[in-house]
Amino acid sequence: MIDYLTGEIQTLEPELQFAKFGVRKDVPKGFDVLAFPQTNKILHTAVSTIAEGVNPVAYGWNSTAYTASLAQYGIYVQITDILARESAISVIDSAVRQIRKALARQMDYAIQVVVNAGTYGVLYGGGKASRATVAAGDIMDTSLYTKGIRDIGKVSDSGVEPFANGAYAVIMHNSAEYDLMSNTNTGGWLDVARYATPDQIVAGKVQAFRGGMTYRSPFIQEFSSTVDVYPSTIIGKESFGWGFFEPIQPILVNTPDSNNPLNLYTSVGGKFSIGITRFEDASATSYRIVRMETAVS
């Protein structure tokens, strides 16, 4: 049974949207801090002309260590002995499936809270200047989406690199994706998809569009403001890092102990310990994640 739990619970990672785009580095035993040393970018202005036979002054190049501390999460449910005896396989199977989904949502939530906590690289719907001024009609549209792709590609003097498919990952709520699909401006998604990728219209997914590959998720952290504000997050290569301090561990207890002397219930659950950190968010010209904040229809 424990092998079955392990297989079921550990399959949650493909269900995660944010985790798949981060740099993963699990922590060896005996360490309590997750560290990602990132070498600093060398600007083109640091390249100097060379006088014949004269070495230029050495450039002061170094690295920055981005660190994350441990956070542990877990859940368990109790199944009574009577229920387990009557339908053990179906009940425990259902419990494991729901635990797996809950763990997946919590892991993605923990990651996106850190990923979406940056100060720089933020755009607001309707051209607004702050989250507090976003109103009900300030929804996702082609202009905002394209501006976000532009900004992550031009930040600093070399931009943030897209992934191997040539696109940035754009993670957004289903409702924000709906607003983008419904935008009727010339050159919008509907115009492009109608002629280039009609299968996306049939599937009801934005997917590849204007330099981004869109991934929808109904489990997006929303911000409370004058209206509910939803972030749509643009991520490139090496935008953030995460890793396990403790991998996902399934838990099954079906023997009596001091807390369950009459063995009246079976406990089924899982836990994990994780660390997450963003890379670069130092100034208006040094960030690796773009966050578009909008209302939704």
Verbal overview:
This protein starts with a helix and ends with a strand. It has helices at residues 2-10, 81-115, 142-154, 174-182, 189-195, 198-203; strands at residues 23-24, 33-39, 63-69, 71-80, 122-124, 168-172, 208-209, 212-216, 223-224, 228-235, 240-253, 265-278, 281-283, 286-287, 289-294. Helix 1 (2-10) runs parallel beside helix 2 (81-115). It has 297 residues and is an alpha+beta fold. Strand 7 (208-209) and strand 8 form a beta hairpin. It is built from 6 helices and 15 strands. Strands 5, 6, 7, 8, 9, 10 and 15 form a 7-stranded mixed β-sheet that branches. It has a 4-stranded mixed β-sheet with strand order 1-11-12-4. A two-stranded antiparallel ribbon has the order 2-3. It has 2 domains: 2-44 and 63-114 and 240-278, Major capsid protein gp5 (Major capsid protein gp5 fold); 121-238 and 284-294, no CATH class.
